[in-house]
Amino acid sequence: MTWVNAVIQGVMLGGLYALFACGLSLMFGVMKVINLAHGDLAMVAAYIALGVVTITHVPAVWSFVLVVPIFAALGYVLQRTLLQASLNRGVITTLLVTFGLSVVIENALQQFLSANSRELNIGSLVSDSFSIGSQITIAYLDLAILVVAVAVLLGLQYFLSSSRSGRMIRAVADDREAAQLSGINYRHVFGIATAIAFGTVALAGLAYGMYTQFDPTTGTTALLLYAFEAVVIGGLGSLWGTLAGGILLGVAQQVGAQYHAADQVLAGQLLFLIILVLRPQGITSRRELA
Amino acid sequence: MTTAGTTDASPLLEVAGLSVHHGQLQALHDVSIAVPAGQVHAMIGANGAGKSTLLRTIAGLHAPTAGSVRLDGRDITGLRPERRVAAGIALVPEGRRLFPSLSVEENLLVGASSRRTGEWSIDAIYDLFGWMRDRRRQRAAQLSGGEQQAVAIGRALAANPSVLLLDELSLGLAPVVVRRIYATLPQLAASGMTILLVEQDVSQALAVASHVHCLLEGRVTLAGPPAGLTGAQIEAAYFGVSAASNGNGDGSPPGTPASAGPASVAPAGSVPASSVPASSGPARQADQPPGVHI
Ligand SMILES: Nc1ncnc2c1ncn2[C@@H]1O[C@H](COP(=O)(O)OP(=O)(O)OP(=O)(O)O)[C@@H](O)[C@H]1O
Ligand SMILES: [Mg+2]
User: Which of B33, B80, B107, B218 has the most CB atoms lying inside 10 A of its own CB?
Assistant: First the structure.
């Protein structure tokens, strides 16, 4: 039964990873941008939420109402300026720019907000749980994060497949030049895609801040790596692959931890390496979005 | 649109003194062409002559190093591709370039992104290509080459262009399919659309166009109505053989080559089989030079 519990905990942790990974996957799928600042941006969202809570005294769980739109706007502006400028100069430039962004964010957070660990205080919600049988305990927060992750992916899937903007995003991802020839301003479409990606990374950052403690380095030491692993395990550019990848990673980590507490991260890396060797295209091999 | 009443004094599409570079390589040298409203013009030339570069520059995908592109008198040289679509220029690119993961209908809907209005609704496009309506939910990647070409044309039509640029519609298609695709062009021309098409299949080009331009290594070597051009003239302009065979002034064949006489000196083996008209159909004139039947 403890192993069953480990798997269930892993699935829920996987929801958090999938939430982190979907923005990374979307930006790669549409723009071929590998955003190395992804994890740090999640931390920025968590710190902004801290500020919002301090100033407005709204409960931390509601901070997303403000933080997500702020981040979406930030994503659009950043794409239309810095990222687009770097894209015009080539893939390596973009990689270096997002790396630079990551370093700047991390140092700025440390400089202005100190290196102390923080958390988004959600009161008793963080520990409330229910039990199934004697061995399985499910925390409401963990379950809620999984539900949010699945809802975000479903919503994104629906948006991409059914809306006019979603159709334009898929067209630009397929063939940017042909999209231009069809009258699409691909820069604007890139901006929309990045806005969505930033919205999801903000959500992920808030979820993480409620889930556990964070500090300015959390973005690069944990989040970026897990998000990458989830994306690669699931298959680049595939949303459902990202969910599957996140869940597999979560399960591997929890089962590893069950075996030996210190092996949690190692088990995840092993799975990642095994997939890279046996199935480098990821467990879902579809190339297209959604 | 003001295109209908345009006088023939001012062409709808005008390219003047256009030079285009790909890095070090100069693909077009001082190219000038003018296409009056409602006419079908064809651009012919060998592989690498610069035909695609010309169409892509008109569509805004390449920035010229000199010269200008005008649409209905308006200078659009500095406009981005998507803005040119809004202005009324649509290109069916070489190799079709459909959105493979999108359905047929989605490809057409994306083509309508510029929101120009006109007679080419999605329904009208389905009427033009009879099979398309029933298969609108199919992914573009699953279509045959000829079907993809039809969708590519439909996608361009969805933008309701006043000028339609077509780059090698026949590329990689069976002759029957090519004929079927080309059979739709008179309908487009009849609707008042101005068409500039690029074609390696010379007989195909001569059959549909009221005016032919020949490109050779980035320069216009011949231009005029097909009826006024002899096969030998076209062959000389196409392969640049007059200079080679006479040994005089190679590299200086500006304008119409006057010394196009001994074009037959061109080695027969150098004529690409696919570009010779009747090679595929025994029913047609077998050994005539391109351009005689029209
Ligand atoms: N994007 C590019 N970068 C570099 N060189 C290019 C590019 N596009 C075309 N060229 C070069 O420019 C010249 C003209 O090419 P272009 O594609 O316009 O010829 P074309 O007449 O369309 O030929 P084809 O019949 O093979 O389609 C060729 O020498 C080609 O190699
Ligand atoms: Mg070409």
Answer: B107
